[in-house]
From TrEMBL, chains A, B:
Binding site for substrate: R230, D360
UniProt-listed InterPro entries: AB_hydrolase_1 (IPR000073), AB_hydrolase_fold (IPR029058), HAT_MetX-like (IPR008220)
GO CC annotations on file: cytoplasm
Protein name per the record: Homoserine O-acetyltransferase
Assigned EC number: 2.3.1.31
Pathway the protein contributes to: Amino-acid biosynthesis; L-methionine biosynthesis via de novo pathway; O-acetyl-L-homoserine from L-homoserine: step 1/1
Keyword Cytoplasm: yes
Single GO term (MF): homoserine O-acetyltransferase activity
Subcellular locations according to the entry: Cytoplasm
Catalysis: reaction(s): L-homoserine + acetyl-CoA = O-acetyl-L-homoserine + CoA
Gene name linked to the record: metX
Gene Ontology process terms (BP): homoserine metabolic process; methionine biosynthetic process
Domain AB hydrolase-1 as annotated: residue spans: 55-364
Biological source species: Magnetospirillum moscoviense
NCBIfam families the UniProt entry points to: homoserO_Ac_trn, PRK00175.1
Amino acid sequence: MSAVEPLGTCPPHNPLGHTVELGRDRPIRLDCGIEMAPVTVAYQTYGRLNADKTNAILLCHALTGDHYVADPHPITGKPGWWIDLVGPGKVFDTDRYFLICSNVLGGCMGTTGPRDINPATGKPWGQTFPVITIGDMVRVQARLVEYLGIDDLFCVIGGSMGGMQVLEWAASYPDKVFSAIPIATAARHSAQNIAFHEVGRQAIIADPDWMGGNYQEAGLRPHRGLAVARMAAHITYLSETALHRKFGRNLQDRDQVSYGFGADFQVESYLRHQGSTFVDRFDANSYLYITRAMDYFDLAAERDGVLANAFKGTRTRFCVVSFSSDWLFPTPESRAVVHALNAVAANVSFVEVQSDKGHDAFLLDEPEFHATLTGFLEGAAEHRGLRRKGNSQP
Amino acid sequence: MSAVEPLGTCPPHNPLGHTVELGRDRPIRLDCGIEMAPVTVAYQTYGRLNADKTNAILLCHALTGDHYVADPHPITGKPGWWIDLVGPGKVFDTDRYFLICSNVLGGCMGTTGPRDINPATGKPWGQTFPVITIGDMVRVQARLVEYLGIDDLFCVIGGSMGGMQVLEWAASYPDKVFSAIPIATAARHSAQNIAFHEVGRQAIIADPDWMGGNYQEAGLRPHRGLAVARMAAHITYLSETALHRKFGRNLQDRDQVSYGFGADFQVESYLRHQGSTFVDRFDANSYLYITRAMDYFDLAAERDGVLANAFKGTRTRFCVVSFSSDWLFPTPESRAVVHALNAVAANVSFVEVQSDKGHDAFLLDEPEFHATLTGFLEGAAEHRGLRRKGNSQP
């Protein structure tokens, strides 16, 4: 990681990212009531902040994502999760916009999380880390934006848990969000989604190497439980159609079944691979805390149960996006957000992208989706008075 | 269990069920090539076989079911899984039909399975038990039916894995099946379903108490892994709508979240309960073998990839039933069976029952479903020349 930057400066892109320590002077009050300080935030930037500071886009990552949006992942070496969307002339045109993405609170890629040392004890937080919320993640992001000297964001965008953060931003900091793009998300986690997360958590907790969350001190890692959790979750990220097209009942390496418990089917081999590679890059306790934050998310609940109350008086321009084959965050969840925004006469467009790729479509090559983003950002930029580089026309 | 009955007799109902040892004289050749003998079969009967032996219905149970169809489960004490359907005047009218249900090969409720002692070694089979198929399960059932002195069955019926057995019966023993009712099932296990099963298997295998399958000799049981497997599977048995209606985001015991990892949400508590009670009544190795059998099931594959080939020349009367909200065995899977039957001009009716209860609907109070069964059985009974008791009209 690069050195800590002085207050109010926006560091240029660095493939390794940046870190900053926040809250030492002013602790961050979490929803659970605990005040946390300091909080280290790992983040990444692309492009340049303009003189008016009006071109900043905050990208919010999903459950197991991080701030390596368009850089090789430092552990896996794989390309960033939105690499196809970031760059000159791309959806997030780095000649035009200044992009920020930070690893969420509770994460394991540099921002303070359960894997880090609790300064009060000198030991890893583990299960003594406070249970955090999407609101807490956004609170920390708001501090980062403030630290960077940016008053308000041109756009906040993200898919899945990133979309929850977008909605939270719009609800909690309406004056700091010019436009918002919540993608493949919901204003509250459904019973089925809580159930799938609970299976993952129980798989981790059932692993004896989890050791009540204190595996680090014992020099262990609950690899097996975390891999099972990932496998279960991964199924929910794909559509049945996508799984059928990719694998169907195709056999692995053989012409016929083995009459054994090896990975006879390609889909088994694929899932096992997903599980085993995940444990190399992710922390089990982080997985527990972040899934919990998603389960707790319910934007209406704290507002008399009326979702529209979350957006009363908003001047933010919204573009809500869902994918037709996403069964984890199905279109009706997005429609509920749109209805709430309509109820307060917000400026909102809604696109259900036709795709058979399931929830993960927001991370994949989906031209209609990318065209939607480009079009919406274009319109918002015009309203914001952002000009294209080398173009004197508004 | 009651004493072994002499060949060719149909024992009356006994709440504890019956057992019989089969294959000692004529081993049962399994799909993997192994010859198995003897095979103990635990089964249950309801009603009386008529003099013509034309009123026998074979009920095929699902993955974790057993032959206690309408009796209290000997371990849990819970009512049988189809108790509402079995009895005088009910869907399966015990005044009219003779019902048979046997625990499947590989099971853990009395029929030979991995928990039993391998006579060749004197030790529990464990992972040395041969990998079985739906075809093997049906082969053993056919031997039981033969042992009971029944030439052909008036009806074979079952849901989910039970439905796979029904299809296998119709394909492998067409002359022994007068009518067949495959419910909430498919002619081949889909990639998504294999994936969910693989998660469950990996959860079991990841449990150190599984001990490579030899947990019995060590006096252990992989409770934690099996509970996680059950939790993951259980989600797939319910529809999102059913989970939302039953639990939504309702909290357990409290007015607000705990900021901890206890079961804050009712749906978490429910799932944990499903997991923890399951391990009391089910064997982990049985779970591995039976899920594998379902994954291997592909009726078309062994018949040049053409499903219709499985039913060529069939004279069986079919009633195919699906449930509109079943996403584990969705209606298109049933429709594929119907199309194959139509292609060979079979006698087939097809009903998609409108229900929001998901896959488990076949085990629940669904009046339209029960009326469908009654109506179809009534028509088939008429064709079979079965008369109602105390009714001289055909």
